[in-house]
Amino acid sequence: MRLENVFGLGFISGLRSMMALAVISDRYVRGELKNDLESPFALIQEEQVSHLLKLAALGEMVGDKLPFVPARTSFFPLVGRIGTGIAVGVVLAPQREARVLYGFVGGLGAVAGAYAGYWWRTLAHYLTPLPNHVSAAAEDAAALLGARYFTSAEANRVDALPAKRKRT
CA 100 → CA 36, 88, 153, distances in Å? Predict the structure, then answer.
């Protein structure tokens, strides 16, 4: 998994904390992602865990529209999002030695995603006549599509990287 895609999946965790893990688990179950994970990280490859993560992601999408849910940038929701961003990085690290770096990058992405999502919803509220749940649904769609893209084979192709130019 390319490091910039780990940041992107961490960003998705900042938008919807369970979405990236649910999509990653689904890709593992389908055989579209492969990694030699050691326990407890190997659990994400189990079909039952995949179903639970999808249910959690769905529950979060529904719960996010409720008026009493705290802001994602308040302490505990932000810590949870950072935690899922770190988990995303750890389960996608290509080697055991890279887990710290990948976890850090996933956590950074989660912070960026949490604040970007907060500002998106705030701007959408003040600049458009749309109700809050409409901008929240757009965020749900962006999170799902983004997670699917960042875990896709196309996004992780090595030949998709820009070629190095020779100095003359």
Answer: 16, 11, 23
Spatial distance between the Cα atoms of 141 and 148, rounded to a whole number of angstroms? 11
Q: What digits encode the pLDDT tens for the residues 23-66? A: 999 999 999 988 877 767 889 999 999 999 999 999 999 998 88
What is the token pair recorded at 102?
Answer: 């990948």
Cβ neighbors of 70 (< 8 A, separation 6 or more) are: 76, 77
Domain boundaries, the chain: 3-153
Burial of 119 per CB tally in 10 Å (0-12, 13-18, 19+): exposed
Task: Report the residue count for the chain.
Answer: 168
Residue type (1 letter), 126: Y
d(C-alpha 136, C-alpha 35), whole Å: 33
Cβ distance 34 to 131 under 8 Å?
A: no
Please list, in sequence order, all residues whose beta carbon lies within 8 angstroms of the beta carbon of residue 82, skipping any fewer than 6 positions away: 107, 110, 111, 114
Q: How far apart are the first and last CA of the chain?
A: 32
Single-letter code of the amino acid located at 79 = V
Give the burial class of 162: count Cβ atoms within 10 A of its Cβ; 0-12 exposed, 13-18 middle, 19 or more buried. Answer: exposed
